[in-house]
Design a protein that fits this description.
By secondary structure, the chain is α+β, with helices and mostly antiparallel strands. It is about 30% helix and about 30% strand. Strands 1, 2, 3, 4, 5, 6, 7, 8, 13 and 14 form a ten-stranded mixed sheet that branches. The longest helix is centred in the middle third of the chain and has 15 residues. The chain starts with a strand and ends with a strand. The structure holds coenzyme A. The site of coenzyme A has 19 residues, from strand 4, helix 3 and helix 4.
Length: about 300
Amino acid sequence: MEVTVRPYTDPDHGAVVGLLQRTLTRDPISRERFTRQVLLDPNFHPEGAVSACDEQGQVAGFCLAIARQVPLENAPPDDDRGYITLIGVCPEHQRRGIGGRLLAAAEDYLRGQGRRSVLVSPYAPGYFIPGVDVDAYAGALPFFRKHGYREVYRPLAMEAPLWDLTRSGWLEHRETGQDVRVEAYRDEDTLPLLEFVRREFPGDWVRVVREVMTRITAGECPRRRLLIACRGREILGFVHHDRERFGPIGVARPERGCGIGHRLMFEALAAIREQGFRTAWFLWSDDNTARRLYEAAGFREIRRFAILRKDL
Ligand SMILES: CC(C)(COP(=O)(O)OP(=O)(O)OC[C@H]1O[C@@H](n2cnc3c(N)ncnc32)[C@H](O)[C@@H]1OP(=O)(O)O)[C@@H](O)C(=O)NCCC(=O)NCCS
């Protein structure tokens, strides 16, 4: 079969989404999500989104490479690196070299953007999952290895049942002191929270809390979606959740190890449960934090990912 590898074009939309649904079976991507998270991403460039087409013009494979164009608000520039955030080849066309050609085209795009390394795929713009799910996409690991990628580390996703969540179960031994309050976000927390996150958590979290506060004040979600731990007027930590998706959660460095994280976690899980959800999950932690924090709330590993890297 003759296959052409070329940049994404608009008529590919439905076929590419269908292909991703058949190949990334654990991560269903709807048409709307593809539009929102890929096409509307200001970092998207069609040259970095490569489709493989057969002689009839049918899409047999797709790969998305991202070179950040819009710098992160509060992080060192990453303009020396690029990211692969999606790749899939139709099951009936796998092991014929199509994936390798897509990857080569994606890497060429990144080189052309001046990137000297490529990652699959930590906090990339519009990322779907961290790296490769080592169980769900087991074939992708030897595939990337064959093309010169090596593992950087293995984060995990976790899930907790909320059926029997009670305060007395695990929070009672971790009292944080009377002077620490946990409250839903108020308008007057806006600037102090941005400043807190900017200071304590360089990276993408300023954008995250900025977007959440924007949505709350637009009436699109409840204030309890963002909970803040304070002593007096001083912010000590925060936690966010979105329906049953938990996180991010962060406590100021000097305040860690005093139960504030546990209390924030409990309040967020209670809020998730009160909305009618019976599990909570998140996509990204390291083993250390899993042991120190999440396991106390009944979170257990549900997915394991490999973050990969290659020098270009
Ligand atoms: C991973 C994927 C994109 C590879 O595409 P592909 O067209 O099959 O890859 P290629 O034919 O170019 O493979 C090149 C080499 O990679 C390795 N490889 C690819 N798939 C493999 C598998 N399932 N098991 C072991 N090795 C594999 C082999 O060394 C292969 O060479 P070989 O066939 O001569 O032995 C494809 O298998 C796929 O779509 N999988 C499902 C979606 C997925 O896992 N995406 C990645 C999620 S992060």
